[in-house]
Amino acid sequence: MVQELLIDIDKAKNIPLNRQIYERIRKAILTGTLHTGDLIPPSRQLAGQLEISRSVVIQAYEQLQAEGYLIMKKGSGTFVADNAVLHLSQSKNELNRMKIDSNLNLIDCSSHETAKKDQFSVKYDFKHGVPAWDVVPMDQWQKSLVRTCRQATPDLLGYGPVEGSYALRKEIARLLRSSRSIPVEPEQIVITTGATQALDILARLFIKPGDQVIAEDPAHSFLHDIFHLSGAKVVPVPVDQQGLRVDQIDKLVMPQEQGTGPAKLAYVTPSHQFPTGVTLSLERRLELLDWAEREGAYIIEDDYDSEYRYVGKKVSALAGLDVSGRIVYVGSFSKILFPALRIGYAVLPHALVQPFLSIKQITDRMTPSVEQEALADFIRNGQYAKHVNQMGKLYAAKRSALVLALEREFGKRIRYYGDQAGLHLLIEINSNVCEEAVAARALHYGVRVYPAGCYFTGFKPDNPTFVLGYSNLCEEQIDVGIRRFAQAEIDCTSREVITA
C-alpha cells in the first residue's frame, strides 16, 4: 500500500524544490517515519499534491535512488530500499545534530554533503554536458584577458550595451556563416548569460498561459520547467532515427476549444538531439519549417554539441534553411571552453530583436563586458578554431574507447545511440534490472552513471537506459569505469534472480 507522504515545501525559499523534497523524504527514512519496503507515492501523484512540475519530483527521487535510499521497480512503484537501514546506522551522528519534528523540516545541507562524500568516493563520473577540464586552453585565454584589460576603456568597464559586445557579435556572426551556413549579421545576435537565459527570455516573449509548446520526446527535463513557468502546456512529440516526428504534431496538439492556446513554439535540437544523438533529416527539416509557416509559429533551434562530429560531413544548421524568419538559433560556449564563462547567444529574425532586448533589459541587463571582449579576441586570433580542432580529435578517441569498452563488457546486450557526434552516448542494455538500482550499485564501485528514463515523457524504453558522458574522462578511466559499471549491472541481475 502506498504510504501517505505529507510534505510541506516553501516555494518562496531560495532552496531548489527538488532539494527540499529530497531532504524531507530522506529525513523521513532516517527518523523511521518511512521503513524498508514502504511504497512511496508515484512522482505524478506527489507532483499533483504539491502543485509542481513532475520533473522536479523525479529529480528528487533519482537523487535518493542514486544514494541508495529508494529503489524503483518497473510496474510496481518506488520503495524504500533494503539498505536504507545502513544509512540510518551510518547517520546516527548526523541525526543527533538534527532538530527532529513532525513536519519533516529541512536538515542542514552542509552536513548532508559531508555524509555523501564520506559514503562514496566517485572516481569515474560519466557526467555529460561538460568539457575536458584538463585541456581547457587557460594560457591562451589568460593572454586574451590580459590584452583586453590592458586596452580597457571607461566604456568597457561601465555598463555595456544590452545586446552585448559588438566585437563578439561580429566574430560569432563570422563563425556561424562559415561553419553553420547561417546568413547572419551581428545586428541579429544578442549575447546572453548562457543558452538557458536565451530560452527563458524566448518563453516570456512567445508564451501566454495555456499556449502549447512542441518539444522533443525524449528531452532534458529542465526545458519543461522553463516552459511551465510561463504557463505553457508542453506537447511531447516522439523522436525516431530521423529526428522529430513532425507528422505527429497536428495529432498531438490539443484543439484550442479545449481550453488551451495555440502551438506558438517548437523547441528542437536538430544537429545532435539530446539525449538520443540523432540528426534531424532534411525531409523532416523542411516539414518542420512548413509547419511553422502554416501555423504562424516559431522554432527554437538549440545547436546542442554541433561543434563535434566524428562520422560523415558536418551538418548545417536548420536556421540556414529559414527564409521566412521563423527560427531563433541558440548557442553557447559552455562545452567548448567552460560553463563558468556564462556566455551564450541568440540569433534572432530582425523583427524579434527589439522585443527580445526589451525583456533582457528588464530581467538581466548585461553579460560581463570584459569577458565578452576577451572571447572576441580569443576567436579573432584563431585560438578558438585551433581549440575546437584539437578537442575534436581528443573526443573522437575517447568516444572510440567508450564504444569498445561497452562492446567488450556487454557484448550483444548493448545498443548505443549518438556515437557519430557530441560528448555523450545514449545506451540501452538488454536486461530486466532497474536502471536506478544499477546506478546506485555502481556508486559502490566508485562509478557514477546517469539513468535516462527521466528524459522520456511518453514512450519509455523497456530496458535500462543511460546517458554516458565521456569528455572529462581519460581512456583508461573509461575502460575501468565501464568494467565496474558492468559488474554493478551483474550484481543487480543476480539479486533479481535471487529475489524471484
What does it look like?
The protein is α/β, with parallel strands linked by helices and 500 residues long. It has three domains: 17-117, Winged helix-like DNA-binding domain superfamily/Winged helix DNA-binding domain (Arc Repressor Mutant, subunit A); 125-133 and 386-499, Alpha-Beta Complex (Aspartate Aminotransferase, domain 1); 138-382, Aspartate Aminotransferase, domain 2 (3-Layer(aba) Sandwich). The chain has 18 helices and 17 strands. The strands form four sheets. Strands 5-12-11-10-9-6-7-8 form an eight-stranded mixed beta sheet, with helices on both faces. Strands 13-14-17-16 form a four-stranded antiparallel beta sheet. A three-stranded antiparallel beta sheet has the order 1-3-2. Residues 85-118 have low confidence and may be disordered.
